[in-house]
UniProtKB/TrEMBL annotation:
Listed CDD domains: ERI-1_3'hExo_like (cd06133)
Protein name in UniProt: GRF-type domain-containing protein
GO molecular function per UniProt: 3'-5'-RNA exonuclease activity; nucleic acid binding; zinc ion binding
PROSITE patterns: ZF_GRF (PS51999)
GRF-type domain mapped to chain residues: 166-205
Cited InterPro entries: 3-5_Exoribonuclease, ERI-1_3'hExo-like, Ribonucl_H, RNaseH-like_sf, RNaseH_sf, Znf_GRF
Source superkingdom: Eukaryota
A Pfam family of this chain: RNase_T
UniProtKB keywords: Exonuclease, Hydrolase, Metal-binding, Nuclease, Zinc, Zinc-finger
Length: 205
């Protein structure tokens, strides 16, 4: 449905860039949400522009952390809609993007996910040669299949609770879904370092 909407508005799937305010949406949330709902995530969400970076460069704010609402105000724009409403956040992000483009700000991909490696193709089983008419043809033993990587329990920084480790081997971080929808308010565990190469995601029970 989203691909059809893009095509209807003249966007070619090979020549577009997703723009976000921060990395969390594309790096963590969308990945887990699609996995939870059994939806295949379109590949163009694997690369995105974190608008915080070109905004900081355009307005010379350095490492000062701005919220989206602060950035809208700093750019001389008027906030539209409700705070933390997904559609309104997207609309205001688009307005800020247009303003940065009007100012001639350089825009380029700022983050991406590591490409998913395809599983190795199975090799045909090699048969041992027959020795005589009564010999039994046997096959070479197959290699044991790798077991899926499971999160291990590890102590949290407080030393009081036990949380699962992410694939980086560190204690995962607890987050909550803020985007309106049926999963809003649900808690989940993500990578303790929020690295793009760690795909750890688990709903908190």
């Amino acid at each position: 449905m989203h691909d059809h909407w893009l095509e209807a508005h003249g966007a070619k799937l090979g020549k577009l860039a997703v723009v976000t305010w921060g990395d969390w949406d594309c790096r963590t949330m969308l990945e887990g949400e699609c996995r939870f709902k059994g939806i295949e995530k379109p590949h163009y969400f694997d690369h995105w522009i974190n608008l915080r970076l070109p905004f900081s460069a355009a307005f010379g704010v350095g490492n000062v952390r701005f919220t989206l609402q602060d950035a809208i105000r700093k750019a001389g724009l008027q906030w539209e809609g409700r705070l933390h409403c997904g559609l309104d956040d997207a609309l205001n992000t688009a307005h800020l993007l247009v303003e940065l483009m009007r100012r001639g700000t350089l825009l380029k991909i700022t983050a991406s996910l590591a490409p998913t490696q395809s599983p190795p193709r199975p090799q045909p089983k090699a048969a041992l040669p027959c020795v005589g008419p009564r010999s039994v043809v046997s096959t070479l033993p197959t290699q044991p299949q790798p077991q899926p990587q499971l999160p291990l329990p590890c102590a949290a920084a407080t030393g009081m609770d036990t949380v699962p480790c992410c694939f980086c081997g560190v204690a995962s971080k607890l987050g909550v879904v803020a985007t309106p929808g049926q999963m809003q308010g649900h808690y989940f565990y993500g990578c303790g370092w929020w690295t793009p190469i760690c795909s750890f995601f688990m709903w908190a029970t």
